[in-house]
Every structure is written in structure tokens, then in C-alpha cells.
């Protein structure tokens, strides 16, 4: 059974009490009382060491988590089989797709792993039907962590702190739980009922997602110049006319708008079920999954009869790998490379051919005005030999239309028509999202941004307990049709304003009462050399911010972004280390620049330690210096001296591959990433510095991307911009903290560092 059997629909928010979403209540961290709930799969090992996959109903109430065998809304009085609190150190990691068996049926699910970041103890796994739903659960657990941090900041009682230390554990047998009193006003439902998860059907029920950023621009300026050269069945085909050097392959793309969510389109593309692919895919309809790695990478084998593509009738087969990611804005990227695999040697009677390197990008669009129908933009990029492409452009009836690249480009048109002809694949609701602000308490909403629940609703704990056995899964699940309240949010997003941000706005972040010093970069020498000009390789430089798009002064009104200005901080040195294990708190190491006499005299230094997982491990340490201390009343000072939770919510990185292979560019992308939400970040604030340790290996998605980048690192130029995300009008426009350009780095040039 394929992934379609694990059916799922979108989010629903409903209100208890007076039946109104605007019922009066005191504000907590998020300005309201929230409860997240929905069906998930609970994965683990029973007492005999056998794997299980049980359907469970999960509740998140503030910082507390409860797991049930049945829906407590429909079964009043039912006791949870597990419960616990979400503490500030609980980490949630996406593990990607995994094949499982449930109730005699198999399918693909998306797994989340829980662990404690302090001691790396495992806290169990849950899984969802779609990647979009998994992302919503990650956000729900993030809100619970914010509530835990908020209670600590407000000076919570010793009893509450003790309860928070009893962290949720989904890993081992937990026979006794305590039941919390209900008193919440606003509910957010994730997913639908179990009957849609288990129903055997060829349809895919999409998980509704928010209306995401709708323009075709990322947060870094790219060198592509796309020109529409053909239209095929309502799908536009573009050529990159900015990169048409002689002798190189041509990059072309097909673009189409599909009336479905990005989750749905992604699942259809990844699904290998023959009965489904035969309806839209003329080339790779016969696929067989050969191997899968890390939940985000697999290898598939396929065959096709070329009778529709050429006059030759010898059968052909192929192998290609698929690597996929889901961005923080809900955009999916799928990379497809020709591959070889020992399980599939060349086959008698078949001619082994190579599928052209290609990529998919699927992102949600806002629903049309007055319509509830979701939409997504699907883009497929293909690398093809230039010879056949030029011939096809000149003569529409050339043999190119019978080639593999053309069949790939037509997949978007086939996907569009297939989904359009299957109403079951459409879901006419967009997610309803509540966003509130803090209205009481000593901590401002700028520091605790989001949707945590007020602590007083969790003071009452009943004395009851449950001894339900987690390994038993015999309870019957009610089969009822789920009803989803349809909501639609539509707004207009203005075009990007390509203006340069004023550097004067950034200077206010430094102390105006302190006399600026002159930073002599010749005093500081890292292990990685600084480039003299653009022709140098295996070096670093510090470009201006004009290549990055940041939030403008009116961003909260019209979503407009502007080109960045010069960085606030000066990049004075870079260290490039090879280490046996990851380095934390490197600022305290004798080799660190901040330990030198010149480093101790600087007013402020930001040490950015990028920990690169590989064999061996690497650390790229960037040193950014300020000529004055931070302004105590600035956003910069709030970040430097604030809580880890605030830093995680604001630290932003914009990546860009300035030069290099186009597939690496698609993998890295140009969208800004909130680092604290994507990977584990640790902070050390002492004396005149703040160190940020970014553990890229803490995320399987990030590991997968960095693994691809390292394979091409000697032939690419990488630009990075670091900034603090502005979320309030007083914080706008944004400014760039620092930039770095890494020019064709050689891994062997890293200096070995002994770590005690």
C-alpha cells in the first residue's frame, strides 16, 4: 500500500465556552488559551523488542502533553495513557519519510524524534501522514517550549518548575499518569480523524497550510534570467538566457499553477504507485523503490517503453536518486540525479539510459479572491544538452519532442491535469491561524513572541491516574465523517522594492554615547586566509548586503523587502578547523581570537561557529567586531543579552550560492532561515563577546543539504548573511549583522584542532 492510504486533511480551529473565537479571556504569552490536538502515529519498541506503530490522539495543553487511545472529546472521562511536560531543553527533529506497517497495511509516514539536548536522551517518536502536518506539530511543541520558558521568566513556583522537569517521555513504558483539568478556550486541530488516516484509497487528502509568501523572489538576489519560450497544455516553459555559454548544458523549467496544496502535489510526485503514475507521468510511470536513507533520500529504478518517444522499440531502464526538503515557509524541493546501485546492475534486454538531472519546487499560493480552493505553484527545472534544445526552439516539430528531457518537462502539465480531474485531491480550506500578543506580565511580547498558554489554567491537577498499557492497541476507533470549518484568508502582497536600506538605521543599534574605535584588521589572523580579489580561491571575503533582500520599513503593512546595506559588524577573521568532535564554547579555547590581547580590547565581538558534520567534522568560525558596544535600548542588545528562546526565535541566516552547479543552488535556496527553529543553537555570553554554536548535524534535513554542498564545495562560491529578524514596527527596517563569502573552499586546507 502506498502513501495514499495514510489520508489526512487540514487544520481546524474551533472555540469552546461561548462558541465565539473572540470570547473574553485573560491573555497569556500568546494573548489566548490554546490547545493543539489531533491523531498521530506513536512509534516504538514493546517489552519484547518488537516495533509497533499505534494510532494515538495527542493533546498539547500549554506546556503539557497527553496521549490517548481514543478522542477524549468523543469519549468523556477517558484517561491518558501517557503525559508529561515540555521543558526548554526538549528538542524535536524531523527524520523524514519512513515506511511502516499498521493494521496489516503499509505506507509512508513522516517521523518526528524527541530528545533532550542536554544529555541526548531519547524521548520517543511520533509520525504524521504528511510533511505539512509534521511541521504543524513541530510548531505546536515549539509553542509549548515557549510557555515553559515564559513560566521560568515570570518566576514560576517551585512546584511548577518540578512539574516541568518531569519531561514528556514517549520512549519507555509509562503506566501511571496524572490528568490535568480542562479550562482552555481556543483549540487548534491538526489533521483529521483516524478514518481518513487508515482509509485505503488512491486519493490523497492534502493538509491545508497557511497562505505563504507568494512572489517568486527569495531573500538573495539570483543571477537567473528566465524567458518564456513555449507553452504546453497551459504550462509555461522557460529558458535561463543569462547562462547560455557555449558548450554547456541549458537549464530550462516548466511552471504551472495547480489547484491543490503543496502537500498534495508533493505526495503525488513522490508516490511510486503505478496505478497513479500511469495517469499523469509518461516517462517514469513504472518505478520501484530500491533503497531509502535518512528519511530524505531514496533511490528508485524504472523502466519505460520508448515507442512513444522514438522509432526504436528496445526497452529502456534507468536509476535515479531523489532528495527532498521542506522549507520553513512550506516550500518543497525535490532533487533528482542519475544514479547507480549494486542492487540493480544492467539488465538483459534493456538499454540503461540516464535521466537528466532535474528538480521540483512546490510552494503554496494564496487562494484566489473569493475562493476557498487552495493553489500551489509547481516548477520543474531540467538540465539538457544544448544541441537538442536549440534545434527544438527553431523547429517545433523536431525530434526533441520525442526525447527524455521533453517528457520530463511535460510532467508538470500531466500533474496539473491529473489533480484537476480528481476532486478528491482538492481540499477547499486554508488553515486558520491565530496570532496574539502578550497583554500582561513583566516580559514583553517582543521577547516571547508567540502562542503559549497562560500558566494559571494548569494549577489544578486531579488525583486520578491511568494504568493503560501502551503496547495494547485493541480499542476500536469511532468511524465518523470529519467536518472541517472552511475559512479563507486572502491578501495582496506588493512587489518587492529593490532599494538599498539606509546604513544609518543600523548604526542606532550601537551605543551612541561610546566613542567608536578604529578596528585594525591586520592585528587579527585566522587559520583561513582572506582573499585579495574575486580571482582568489580557498579564501573568504566580506561582501556588502546588496545581494540580500531584507524586511523594509513598511513590511508589516505590505510585505515589501529592500536590498540590504553594509553590515553593522565587521568581519575581521575566519577560522577553518578540522576536529574529531564538535566544538562548543570555542571562545574559551586558547586558540580563539577573542583570547588574544587585541581581541580582549574590542568593544564587542560576535563569534559565529558553524559546526559542519562530516568525516572528519569541521568548524567554520566567523569573528564579527563592532566599534562600539550594543545600544542598551536596541534590538541588537536584546538579542545579545536576551534569553536563548528569544535568540532562537530571531536569529536568521540568508544563504546564496553565488556561483556553482545549479542543482546545489536549488538545494541551498535563497530563502531566509530561522536558525534556532531549524537546528540546535547554543549561546555563550561573557565579557565582550557572544558566541553562537550552530550544530548543523542536529537536523537530518540540514545534514542532507550540507552533504550535497560538501561534494561540490571546491567549485562553488557561497554567500551568507546573518541578521536579527524584525517582528515589530519599531524594529523595522531590518539590517544585516554580518556577511561572508566563501570562495571555492578546499576541505584539506582545514587546520586540525585538538579538543580536550
How are the SSEs ordered, and which strands pair?
Elements: E1 12-15, E2 34-45, E3 51-61, E4 64-68, E5 82-85, E6 90-102, E7 105-116, E8 122-128, H1 131-153, H2 158-165, E9 177-180, E10 186-189, H3 194-198, E11 226-232, E12 235-240, E13 250-258, H4 262-270, H5 274-277, E14 286-293, E15 297-304, E16 315-326, E17 332-338, E18 350-352, E19 358-365, E20 375-384, H6 386-394, H7 404-409, H8 411-420, E21 461-466, H9 503-507, E22 539-541, E23 549-551, H10 555-558, E24 561-563, E25 570-579, H11 597-600, E26 604-612, E27 617-626, H12 635-641, H13 644-650, E28 651-659, H14 662-668, E29 673-674, H15 675-678, E30 680-686, E31 689-695, H16 700-712, E32 717-724, E33 736-743, E34 751-752
Parallel strand pairs: 2-10, 16-18, 25-34, 26-31
Antiparallel strand pairs: 1-10, 2-3, 2-8, 3-4, 4-5, 6-7, 7-8, 9-21, 11-12, 12-13, 13-20, 14-15, 15-16, 16-17, 17-19, 19-20, 22-33, 23-24, 25-27, 26-27, 28-29, 28-32, 30-31, 32-33
